[in-house]
């Protein structure tokens, strides 16, 4: 489950951010825990960026209040435990553990992890035909080669899908290639018909193993939230920064602050559900419009007994792209759980949100029965996500769309009048679309506010 794995070998170096959270959380501006100042900060959103910033600010003497629209903190770090085990609806993996700030944070928070091995896999074509490892590996290697150079043929006005089809027409309808583009590009980078053909490979990554959380990614959010003043079920509708004190309207109540940090997802910003007075600068509204917002939905199915291959990943190459073509064997991660996790991406992911549970199960079982035979049983339970219609996210994570320029991420990170600040994965130009990017953005903005004192 490497994120942007294809650029891994092309990086010439990583930025200064290769530090543990304890280092990131300290600076020459740090105040003693008992030394407070008279400045109040309202953090809008209790995801990992908002919580990281709030903790940093509180530790530096600020009066901090986190306003969270949902009934608990975490944002897109959301864990479902209704079946007696941990199913992460949003973030699941630490993508590259070497130098990644989430690695050390996970250790501090008590988040347990399991290393997933990309090469522990089997790939099936329609009819349940097992694909040879060499066929899969050769296609994968060719994909990486293409992805490392295709931007040289890119065009600012044309999508990844268009350029790829022009260069490799023989691959467009090939089922294995549709699968590879779906799970290696759409999953990581966004809708192919709107993904920039120039910028699809932008962003950096940490090296090392890929590790999946086994006791819930929300462990991180709960750890960071400890000791913070958090008000849940508080939906912010207006931020008025026209005077010296900023007025934040939430659930019809107005609370004043010296600084406000806005950490809501890009999808929420796109929906204009928060009124800003004065209006946001054109550079920021343009960036909000130009960045893409991907949708990935997860589906977890359980059975009384496992009937599938004893490998980490099982892939299936149907005619329709982005549709239940990749299965994570949860039993390899948690031997006591007989479950498979699968995905839907982009437009098909959005389409699933209007489908019933029964329809979802039927579609997934069509693929599994084609692999393992019609006698396999139906699942005992289904858990699913609906990130596109979730009013608190309106999508999964940002990506570089055809209209995107890389400065748009920096434009979103730009503070306004040293009063209103912005964090979230969509404001982190090097690590957008990732948990570590969101975390680092919160630390970044907290440091900006601290430097004003």
Helix fraction, binned, reads: 25-40%
Q: Report the sheet-strand fraction.
A: 15-25%
Given as residue ranges, the uncertain stretches (5+ residues, pLDDT < 50) are 1-34
The average pLDDT is 93
Q: Give the CATH class of the domain at 23-114 and 212-292 and 398-451.
A: Alpha Beta
Major sheet characteristics: 7 strands, mixed
Tell me the distance between the termini: 42 Å
Number of strands: 23
Instruction: Label the structural class.
Output: alpha/beta
Overall radius of gyration? 22 Å
Write structural notes for this entry.
With 453 residues, the protein is an alpha/beta fold. The chain has a domain at 23-114 and 212-292 and 398-451: 3-Layer(bba) Sandwich (FAD/NAD(P)-binding domain). 30% of the residues lie in helices and 21% in strands. It has helices spanning 21-24, 48-59, 101-109, 133-147, 160-167, 175-189, 218-225, 266-270, 282-290, 330-333, 346-352, 357-372, 407-413, 435-451, and strands at residues 40-44, 63-67, 79-80, 87-88, 93-95, 113-116, 121-125, 129-130, 210-213, 229-231, 236-240, 246-250, 253-257, 259-262, 275-277, 292-294, 296-302, 313-317, 323-329, 339-345, 381-384, 397-399, 420-422. It has a seven-stranded mixed sheet, with helices on both faces. A five-stranded parallel sheet has the order 10-2-1-14-23, covered by helices on one side. Helix 3 (101-109) crosses helix 7 and helix 9 packs across helix 13. The longest helix has 17 residues, at 435-451.
């Amino acid at each position: 489950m490497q994120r942007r794995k294809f650029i891994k070998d092309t990086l010439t170096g990583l930025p200064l951010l290769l530090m543990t959270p304890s280092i990131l959380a300290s600076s020459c501006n740090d105040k003693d825990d008992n030394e407070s100042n008279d400045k109040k900060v309202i953090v809008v959103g209790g995801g990992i960026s908002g919580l990281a910033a709030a903790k940093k600010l509180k530790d530096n003497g600020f009066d901090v209040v986190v306003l969270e629209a949902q009934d608990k903190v975490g944002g897109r770090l959301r864990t479902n435990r209704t079946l007696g085990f941990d199913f992460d609806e949003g973030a699941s993996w630490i993508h590259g553990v070497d130098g990644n700030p989430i690695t050390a944070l996970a250790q501090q928070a008590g988040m347990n992890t399991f290393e997933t091995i990309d090469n522990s896999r089997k790939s099936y074509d329609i009819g349940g035909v097992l694909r040879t490892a060499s066929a899969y590996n050769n296609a994968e290697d060719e994909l990486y080669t293409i992805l490392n150079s295709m931007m040289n043929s890119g065009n600012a006005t044309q999508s990844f899908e268009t350029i790829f089809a022009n260069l490799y027409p023989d691959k467009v309808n090939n089922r294995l290639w549709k699968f590879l583009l779906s799970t290696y590009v759409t999953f990581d980078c966004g809708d192919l018909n709107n993904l920039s053909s120039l910028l699809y490979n932008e962003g950096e990554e940490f090296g090392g193993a890929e590790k999946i959380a086994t006791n819930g990614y929300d462990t991180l959010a709960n750890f960071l939230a400890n000791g913070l003043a958090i008000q849940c079920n508080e939906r912010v509708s207006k931020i008025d920064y026209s005077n010296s004190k900023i007025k934040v309207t939430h659930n019809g109540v107005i609370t004043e602050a010296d600084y406000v940090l806005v950490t809501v997802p890009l999808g929420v910003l796109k929906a204009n559900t928060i009124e800003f007075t004065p209006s946001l600068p054109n550079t920021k509204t343009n960036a909000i419009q130009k960045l893409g917002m991907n949708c990935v939905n997860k589906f977890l199915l359980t059975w009384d007994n496992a009937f599938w291959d004893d490998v980490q990943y099982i892939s299936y190459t149907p005619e329709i792209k982005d549709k239940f073509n990749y299965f994570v064997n949860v039993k390899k991660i948690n031997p006591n759980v007989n479950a498979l996790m699968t995905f839907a991406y982009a437009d098909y992911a959005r389409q699933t949100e209007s489908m019933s549970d029964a329809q979802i199960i039927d579609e997934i079982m069509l693929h599994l029965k084609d692999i393992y035979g019609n006698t396999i049983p139906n699942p005992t339970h289904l858990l699913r996500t609906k990130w596109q219609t979730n009013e608190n996210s309106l999508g999964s994570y940002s990506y570089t769309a055809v209209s995107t320029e890389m400065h748009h991420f920096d434009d979103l990170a730009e503070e306004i009048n040293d009063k209103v600040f912005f964090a979230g994965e969509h404001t982190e130009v090097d690590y957008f679309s990732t948990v570590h990017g969101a975390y680092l953005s919160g630390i970044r903005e907290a440091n900006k506010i601290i430097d004003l004192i």
